[in-house]
Amino acid sequence: MKQEIAVYGKGGIGKSTISANLSAAMAVTGRKVLQIGCDPKHDSTRLLMHGENIQTVMEYLKETEKELQNPADILRTGFMGTGCIENGGPRPGVGCAGRGIISSFEFLEKFKVKEQYDTVVYDVLGDVVCGGFAVPIRREYADVIVLVTSGEYMALYAANNILRGIRSYDGDTECRVAGIVFNERKLPDEDGRVQRFADAVGLPILKKVPRSDAFARAELEHVTLQELDGCEVEKTVFQELAQEIRPGMTLYPARPLEDQELETVVLQTENRNEQGYSDPERLSDGKERSGDSIHSCLPAGHADEEAGISAAAVKRLPLYGCAFNGAITCGVHLTDALIIAHSPRACAFYTWQNISSPGRKNLFNRGILMPSAIAPHFTCTDMGQTEAVFGGTEKLKEAVQAAIDQKPGAVIVVSSCVSGIIGDDLLAAEALGTEEVPVITIPADGDIRGDYMEGIRMCMHKLGTELIDRTVRPSGKCVNLINEVAVSVNHETNYRIIRDLLAGLGIEINCRFLGDTGVQELKNFLKAPLNILAADTQDGRELRSWLEQEYGCSFAESAFPIGARAAKQFLEEVAAYFGCSERVPALIRREEEKYQREIERLRPELEGKRVVITTINSNIDFVLQAAEDAGMEILQIGVINYLRQEVKVSDTPERYNINETMEWEKLYDQAGDWNADFVISNYTPQAEDGAYVKDSIPMMPLAGYSAGIDVIRRWADLQRRKREGAWNHDRVYFEQYVRN
Questions:
Q1: Does the first or last residue of the chain, that is N or C, have fewer Cβ atoms within 10 Å of its Cβ?
Q2: Residue 143 — very low, low, confident or very high, per pLDDT cuts 50/70/90?
Q3: Strand order in the sheet with 478-482
């Protein structure tokens, strides 16, 4: 009957020596034994191999192409025919040894290496809290678990933690623990400590391994005890242990102690506080530690940020993706920089799709070219299993140097979950930068550091800190545009609208922070005397506050104007700041004439039509103004307080029927009762028969005078299509391409 035995215990407790001697004793009795060393030190099988250090599985997988891999290259034969395998691992301080164990086990399973043996002994680094090192105790591997400990408190603490790990897999009832191997250290009360622990957790002491110079002699001769003369007592211990650990032996459940209980049992202290020890659950002033104590040592206002918790998570706002995605989506708008995603290829692919989708939509639907979205200028290091195990810093440095050789304005490196978890050294990549081509690293670490918006914030702050030249002074009539919504299909259109309005005042755009702009433009950011928020959102306000505090920037009160009335106010404010108010009347007259011409063109289609609006937007001025200018009647405005913001209504709200407790599900029934012609909401509902037309209010409307016109133009088109029966064409397409 096959048996797989996992030997766990604190590092340095003697697991490898005990595992090798146990395997040798089992082999002497005729068992076919395979010993697998799961410690990165890869010295588990050295005694079985008479001192030879064998190639590790991890080294082999790293150096050998998949199609050339053969288990015979890493499976060696030791004393009495024992099979010997060493997993190995990365150099200290890089990569993930736990992931390495998983990769090795997958390799061994693929080639069915264990099938030729009746006994498998796993020698595991057992005091590491890591899922990779816990692999051998998963149910598909070890059916017997042996704990090695001495009487040292930390050794018993590690053994207790291992029991906790086993219980997380098995619960309180499944039995897989064989017992304890007591590796004697000759400490005071050592026998008593180990016995008390064993009794408390309900496990037997399988054997006591005496402290003996026989082990040192065996190490010098590179052999196990079974091959050493003059150590019959020690040999017998392992021979008896080999007889006890056999198929059909009695096994026990994992029942670990609580920390305080462990101290009481092992050290025989009833209450350590009474003995003068500190209780980890109490603070120095005697008060109970609260669940928020992680923040107690952080400066006020920085606790969440320093703890790596995004603002969105703290405020329970929706999360729109990971920080890695957000940082790259933001960074690609630095048009002459090259971005390196230190990530697996799949992460880069999804980010690429997220960036390019609005670009394709704008190009195909509106003929607007957005170069940074159509062809995002970033690549990835294509991290795979080798980098996850051994670390990807060297591969990253190669990618950065290759990018520098192309002489871009800057190189931006963004880390993903994988590179963040294994601790790759981004600063090593940053050190490759030159004065001509700086390397800027953003440790977004996937979603570990926060969500999509947190990634954008990190990117903005890091690029600003690294590139903005503080010696530049304001000069000329120019502005910076701040916080453009890059994922909106109106992103580039709105930029052009604002650019043309400002040009009418003789004002240029200095830098878009961060729309499509160059490294040199960002360096000259402080040249602009005035900054304008594109979107007056929480994130925009936070960015504005940072720029004000960090660089002393001045901001216009108005953000990008939405609608005719807001556009007039915006132009007057900016013109007054730059002392060019004399240009405003002609510019406003030009824009209002264009607006009125379009209203007159739409009026025959919309005049007298009755509208019900329900909204979660914080500003619907532009819609109401355009609708009324076209002669439409606003029957009711229903407020769905989804964003917990005040809904802004133009002029005097008393002239509107405003329902601040709108019941969404009753909206369409009420619209029918009112003989409404249009029902407008923030989403386009499923089409259905009815006397009215349905449409949505854009979450990111056009800027300037065109905002309201753009919306009611859609209404007019929908009304015309309904009247002309154009919906029948849609039904034909639905039948052809969806139902069939």
A1: C
A2: very high
A3: 508-513, 478-482, 530-533
